[in-house]
Amino acid sequence: MARVTRYAFLVSPSHNRVYAQAAPRLALAELSAVAERAFDGRLTDVGTTTLGGLPYVTFALDDAPAGPDAATVEATDLALVSTLSSVYALFRVEGGRDDAGEAVLRPVARAGVDLFDSDLLTVQKYAGKTNEDFTRLLVNVTVAATDRPRDLAGPWTTRPDGARRRLRVLDPMAGRGTTLNQALVRGWDAAGIDVDAKDVEAYAVFLRTWLKNHRLKHGASLQTQHRDGKSLGRRFAATVGATPAEYRAGETIGVELVNADTVRAAELFPAGHFDAIVTDAPYGVQHGNRASGTRGRDGRSTSRDELTRSPVPLLSRALPGWVRLLRRGGTVGIAWNVKVAPRRDLVDALTDAGLEVLGGGRDDAAPDPWQGFEHRVDQAIQRDLVVARKPR
Ligand SMILES: C[S@@+](CC[C@H](N)C(=O)[O-])C[C@H]1O[C@@H](n2cnc3c(N)ncnc32)[C@H](O)[C@@H]1O
What we know:
Layout: E1 4-11, H1 13-19, H2 23-38, E2 43-51, E3 54-62, H3 70-82, E4 87-94, E5 104-108, H4 119-122, H5 132-144, E6 156-158, E7 164-166, E8 168-171, H6 178-185, E9 189-194, H7 197-213, E10 218-227, E11 230-240, H8 244-248, E12 253-259, E13 274-280, E14 285-286, E15 306-307, H9 312-325, E16 326-337, H10 343-352, E17 356-357, E18 375-378, E19 381-389
Parallel strand pairs: 8-9, 8-13, 9-12, 13-16
Antiparallel strand pairs: 1-3, 1-4, 2-3, 4-5, 6-7, 10-11, 11-12, 14-15, 16-19, 17-19, 18-19
Helix pairs in contact: 1-2, 2-5, 5-6, 9-10
The chain binds S-adenosylmethionine.
Residues 128-130, 173-176, 178-179, 193-196, 199, 261-262, 280, 282-283, 314 line the site of S-adenosylmethionine.
Region (Disordered): 285-308
InterPro entries: SAM-dependent_MTases_sf (IPR029063)
């Protein structure tokens, strides 16, 4: 019988700041979703506990089946757990439970999944930025939902001819590149689209400066694209070497951000190109602005954020193009504000575009991790996420 090891991880303090009371629940949902996809039933007994006044997530993991691949499987297991957005410190739990005496937590070194300093994710600050912990969670559960869930553990996926290539992630409403940076730090090729030219320019300035400050070998350009004599907007493209040797060998990571309307996504990249499409949809909230013509009860303008509109009509127009860009077995993960659109509308839009939505329809009593992510961001935003797969 396989040996079972129990683990506990301390939930990252930044997670607690972002999600407040919901932090352990979201950590649990992320682990449960990744476990369901990537561990072949070997990761079980997921729960939360408080030790010494701090929140921990706990789980049990069966050893890899004996055989020549066991060590690789176990290394990938550790990398998958280490990459979760909520893990701060990982421990093996010894004793306690059925054994006499208190449980002892023995530290386990997390696998180094990120190729670059975390300041790539944290330095940029601007209104409308998607929190980097949440972006990591969204990216993780979306990539775990592909038909190659264990790709989440590293930079590579396997091509149909058996050769390896980097995973490819698209954010079709990328803003100033929070998702692109999450992909880059993992060694994945990243592409983005945003309709706001200022976002593309700001991201180009940020990434160039960051690459220079970190003395990373790279090439970068910001060019206006033309087709049939017409300007198609600007495209920022960079190639980055994780090491000088990899840069010289041409083993670079690609990052690009195109200024365009996302409904034209299919014109911008080859069909079937991406493994995952990840985006934080417009919230339908005007931060710091007032929706025109809105007045408070006393007739003066209100100072609260105003709800304006649902992202679903835009998503419905854009999804056919996005689906074209996705390989079979690839996934789309979308975060949105449930205050402007119910989950049902998102599920319908994804289903109408030919995708299979994860979660729902479970016939056991276990909680559905794919519907466990809803949480409060602020007074105007209650955020949720939905993940769907392109059939094989
Ligand atoms: C919630 S923000 C994403 C923020 C981004 N994740 C970040 O952290 O910078 C939504 C983005 O959608 C973009 N957007 C809205 N409509 C769009 C469209 N039709 N095509 C492309 N991008 C669009 C907005 O410009 C905005 O940057």
